[in-house]
Design a protein that fits this description.
By secondary structure, the protein is an alpha/beta fold. It has seven helices and nine strands. Strands 4-6-5-8-9 form a five-stranded mixed β-sheet, with helices on both faces. Strand 8, helix 5 and strand 9 form a beta-alpha-beta unit.
């Protein structure tokens, strides 16, 4: 109804994904991105650290329509400076080079896992591009399409169900741009239990080890 009545409303979800840890599946928001992406005229944002969160909160103050920002309950490393800007509809390419053989795309918690995975991959001689897709809707189609053209292989990783989340947003962007690519989607397909955040990410196949393994298989196949 907020969308139908053209209301301007800002919503924040703070207990999202398996990364909340021992509280278990009854407390995990795993369908929120899909729910808000499907609302007409909505905006969906997923910051990865404190400075990015602060900048995006400021950016949505005067944004019209339904805006959803997915925040993280646990502590995450700060990777951005306090003066970094994050345009809505944009993304950040955190690692990139001419030898990139695969692109890792994450947001929030999984961005940090993707960066760790990229470190492990380079030890095996595989250069990986890393994209922070903090704006899931609207999405940065140009950057995604460029990564697909230049690396040909994408691994998307999200602390969310596979249906309607970051991975499907990337696939839709590639379809809109008419760019073919081989894509592996990593998402929470299991029914989580109660465990530490690290154990939850590993059990759901969305931690750094799972990302690195998926990228290696994609590159070698």
């Amino acid at each position: 109804m907020a969308s139908v009545s053209r209301a301007n409303i800002r919503l924040a979800g703070s207990h999202a994904g398996v990364a909340i840890g021992p509280d278990g599946p009854s407390q995990m928001g795993l369908e929120d991105i899909a729910s808000f992406r499907s609302i007409w005229g909505s905006t969906v944002l997923y910051p990865a650290d404190a400075n990015q969160t602060a900048q995006l909160v400021a950016a949505i103050v005067d944004r019209p329509g339904v805006v959803y920002i997915r925040t993280t309950r646990g502590k995450t490393p700060v990777i951005y400076g306090p003066d970094e800007t994050f345009p809505i509809g944009g993304s950040k390419v955190l690692r990139s080079g001419p030898a990139d053989a695969v692109t890792l795309i994450g947001a929030g918690v999984t961005l940090h896992e993707a960066m760790t995975a990229a470190d492990r991959l380079i030890e095996d001689g595989i250069a990986a591009r890393v994209i922070d897709l903090y704006s899931i809707k609207p999405i940065d189609r140009a950057t995604i399409a460029a990564a697909a053209r230049e690396t040909g292989r994408l691994v998307t990783v999200e602390d969310h169900r596979p249906e309607g989340g970051l991975g499907e947003a990337v696939l839709a962007a590639l379809a809109d741009e008419g760019v073919p690519a081989r894509v592996v989607q990593l998402a929470v397909s299991n029914m989580p239990g109660s465990a530490s955040p690290e154990e939850q990410l590993a059990d759901s196949g969305i931690d750094a080890g799972a990302i690195a393994a998926a990228a290696k298989e994609l590159v070698s196949s």
